[in-house]
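Project standup — Tuesday

K.O.: blocked on the structure for the chain from last sprint. Re-posting the sequence here as requested.
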Amino acid sequence: MPSSDSPVLLITGASSGIGAATARAAAADGWRVVLAARSQDKIDDLAAELGDDAALAVRCDVTEWDDQQAAVAAALEQFGRLDAFFANAGFGASRGFLEESPEHWRSMVDTNVYGAALSIRACLGHFKEQDAGHFLVTGSVAGRVKLPGSLYSATKWAVHAMADGLRQEVSETRIRSTVIAPGMVDTPFFDERKTGVLEADDVARAVLYALSQPDHVDVNEVVVRPN
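H.V.: unblocked you, prediction finished:
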């Protein structure tokens, strides 16, 4: 269980799915977690489940720069440190360039791409100051292949490029950058329960694998597919 000197992980999109599963897995592994999401009631419930010593709930819309800065500040104020940031918030869209609304597209691009960029910006100054830190982001198998009519796939290509761009920028430091790229996962991302797909816990274990490596090891990408 976490203690007063345990490392701290901030997770966006922590209210459900991969984010919530990762929070539970990290807390069980001895991390303290900052739960950032727009759904205040859900992250409050999760923080209560994990315990006040292990978790802090902070409302955060990742498309708002002030919210992202405030989440990092809250982590430092509450726990006195920030060791890793998991930029997990995101959502998808139906395939087809005549599907969905332009408003849905804009919101998805803002969340998946701009939100991830703001997450890097929010934690990077602190990581550079301490010359250590681990930035992780939820990519996708869809960010490694070209899918017909998929703007969502394009956003995940951008996320993969962004994470590697960060890796190159901080290559002379002890800061690490990891893309967690799952295939289809059974989460609230989908309207109906899926079968023959990954569970959120499967992805959470991949996150913990990357986080658990010694300082001289930088796991840049973890691709997880259902078998």
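K.O.: great, moving the ticket to review. The longest strand covers residues 175-182. Residues 102-130 form the longest helix (29 residues).
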